[in-house]
Design goal:
The complex is a heterotrimer of chains A (276), B (291) and C (265). By secondary structure, chain A is an alpha/beta fold. Chain A has helices at residues 43-50, 74-80, 97-107, 112-125, 141-153, 171-186, 198-201, 221-224, 228-233, 240-250, 262-275; strands at 2-11, 17-27, 32-36, 58-63, 66-67, 81-84, 159-163, 190-195, 206-211, 214-219. Classes of the chains: A alpha/beta (276), B alpha/beta (291), C mainly alpha (265).
Amino acid sequence: MIELKNIYFSYFVPEKVDILKNINFNINKGEFISIIGKNGSGKSTLGRLIAFLLEPTKGEIYIDGKKIKNELDYLEIRKKIGMVFQNPDNQIVSQIVEEDIAFGLENLNYDEETIRKKVEEVLIEVDLLEERRFPPHFLSGGQRQKLAIAGVLVMEPEYIVLDEPTSLLDPKGRKDVIKLITRLNKNGITIILITHRMEEAMLGDRVIVLNNGEIALDGDPFEIFTNVEFLREIGLTVPPLTYLSYLLKNEGVPIEVKLWSLKEIKEELLQLKLKI
Amino acid sequence: MEFEGDKGRTIAIEVKNLSYTYSRGLPYEKEAIKNINLIVYEGEAVGILGHTGSGKSTLIQHLNGILLPQEGEVKIFGEKIINNKTFLKNLRKIVGIVFQFPEDELFAETVFEDVSFGPRNLGLNEDEIKKRVIESIKDVGLDESYLNRSPFSLSGGEKRRVAIACILSMSPKILVLDEPTSGLDPIGREEILSLIKKLKNEKKVTIIMISHSMEDIVQFADRIYILNNGKIVIEGKTEDIFKNKEILEKYDLSVPDLFLLGEELKKEGFVISEPFKDFDIAKREILRNLS
Amino acid sequence: MISKDSIIIGQYFPGFGFLYSVDPRAKIISFLFLMIIIFIFKNILSFIPIIILLLLFFISSKIPFKHVLKGLKPIIILLIITIFFHFFFTPGNIIFKFYFLKITYEGLIRGVFIGTRLIVLILISSLLTFTTSPLELTRGLEFLTLPLNKLHFPSSEIIMMITIALRFIPVLVEEADRIIVAQVSRGASFDEGNIIKRAKNLIPILIPLFISAFRRAEELAVAMEVRCFQPGKKRTYMRRLNWRRLDTIFTILIILIGLISYFIG
């Protein structure tokens, strides 16, 4: 479990800018948490704090009960928590797929045999086995992002933070990456997904909504997305059918504002028509 | 492909049997587009749906003469594109292309300088340039105070709008946009899409939008072409394309939920006169049926 | 426009053949030795065994003649100037006179000698880069310079920088192409005007490229840190080079040929 207590983060140069204020929440093992917020809401910074790439200005972060910086080995944290970023190209170091995956283990001084074995396992996990000797620029965008994930996965992290991993990908790439992430979560890896795509945010057990550096909402996706007006006010949108139900309700239609599926809302509207 | 060409409508772009292969003749040659035929009428908004690798970049670069046809031809307002320096320079006055992530092209010290880069290259005088810069910065929804700022101090959404202004300042008659909402958050997306709709309705610019996002294209395109593996596989009115479920599945395309809802309700007896392209239409139609 | 396939870095020509399978370290050591030793050759006879060796290698590696000539293209002017310099300005018996230009017998010999040395030098290094991919070369250099780390010379870091730079070449080429296409679409042209104007015209390309490169570097550094990279710390390697007996034989053979050639002269 990761605990964030009273976290503040600010920049001081050239002038003081508060990025995050009063952040308090826990991340439980095995959860799939989505963090959403408009650009500038502080979600990327929060992601980096969780991955210990940044130090909070104020407040403490505990991982599995131990406070960071004082008690834990920096390298140990790096192994426990991996992070994947938006641009796959800027995460790939090597000219050959399997060698790039090996990079992390080489840094940790694992022996050759072990590295080979773990790399092969991960290649299968992300479905890049056939492309193992390819140069990265031969891969599609989605495959490159899977490669970036593989590079982190091979170090056997317990938590993975992903900062808008699909925003530069085309629909197919997006689908593949999301499928992989979901599967990793089912296999026990705690996923923290930072995104502004609502359909991705809905995949989680929990959604945290950031606004202006503070946590505005924290809960079940089904509850969160009923706050249509508020979400729109802070620069986010809701899934289209939910928005439609909101618009109709405003016009007096007795329809609930919630996360509707196509089938459900169709049935509901048909019912309403019959009653007239 | 058969076109129901309207007699009397001016053809802005006509592409006939266009093919292009990269590194032709070499062992690693790559055929990017094959036998492309398409027509865009003046004032229309056409969407070209294509994933990465579908050949869309190659096609776009033929529209302003960056690439010249190896086979076939491209005509802009009736004139065939040829490899002539003066012709190409004029062509780029008429066809403006906003490439993907256009903010990557910004380089100047001030927004004014960047937005004036295009018109200055066209040889316009300073007064005209200033007029165009002010007009285009307003067109993209930013006010004049932005002109003195450094482009690099702006937010992502603002940078993108400045980049679009850089092309608009050249006053193109035809505007081509490649993935205009790529990488933007939901509000940013909505802003850019409404900007494009405004350009279509108010400025009467002929617009071609290439995207892999059905949701984006649906909102404003009159007609759609689907590009797959270098070939045009379907062409038609937006609503007609969406009715063809097999084709959509075959090419891994998703119909926006809103649109589907309209079709489903129609099948179940609702009186739907317009396909659900956006929320206003959907709301209107449903309310009508429930009162 | 520029496609990432059109840049053949170091003119690596993929293929099969004996020379391709030799350990890059063996090739680096042997060819470096040859290049050094031909500088102490005293006369042109010494070159004969070397040239025969090179011809054999080129033929067995099936490298097309055209490709070899392409390797000589860059220095053709230097070659001509050097040779004629020696023709005209070496004192000795004059065998040819054209107004104030005189070619001496000694000059002729000297010119041909120097010219041959230059050509052979280029051919040896070309052979190295034709048959060894950039990746193999950096790998070979990395393992060769490993001992330098003990002397606190950051060779591993330097090699890592080179490896990363190589990996980003296709990416940056594509990006440069994108930016050029975009600026041309805004009416920019790059082939007009004098030197100063042309340099100025490059600004709309260089600035975006630099900015992008810096951003990439920063993001990459963070990604590397996430994967526990610590500069200066010892690392293991998944893919070690395998030095076989063949490589020893190869190296010794080449060194012997070099020495014998020296003594022939």
